[in-house]
Amino acid sequence: MHIHAYEKLWLALSIVLILALIGTVTYGAVGPGVAMVADSQSTVDPGALDEDDRFSEPRVEQVGENEYEAYVVAYQFGFEPTPIVVPANSTVTLHITSRDVIHGFGVAGTSANAMAVPGEVSEITVETDEPTEYGIVCNEYCGAGHHVMEGKINVVSQSEFEDRGGDSE
Fold this sequence. Notes:
Blueprint: H1 5-30, E1 60-64, E2 67-75, E3 78-80, E4 84-87, E5 91-98, E6 103-107, E7 113-116, E8 122-127, E9 132-137, E10 150-156, H2 158-163
Parallel strand pairs: 2-5, 4-10
Antiparallel strand pairs: 1-2, 2-3, 5-8, 6-7, 6-9, 9-10
């Protein structure tokens, strides 16, 4: 049986493309910088958030010089606290969880993005500059009221932050 030269070429090219696909999928699954959720990641009982020291009262607290931690709870269809008030020129680590279903936590206009999963605590760290206001959107469908689920992060001056009592209202 005679195989035409162009058929051999297309056959060889197809095999190369299939091997390239398998290689890229393998690299994507085990390549450097890819990490799955670790067993060491902080967990919480979503049914007992009121009993957890971190999330019973969602807030912002100072943990060092110009370093703050914010504890945020997502629920259908909002975020607590709202607004999240943080001082300008500081580093803020957001600890985010959900009390009911999976939610998204995206800070509009930035690359800050996390998932709020019941039973897990997501952490993202952001650095604030000038006083401004950011919108928070849920970017994971969470139910019939998903389209109205929003919040705010208010970056205020240090003096205004202290005048507010040093935490979110």
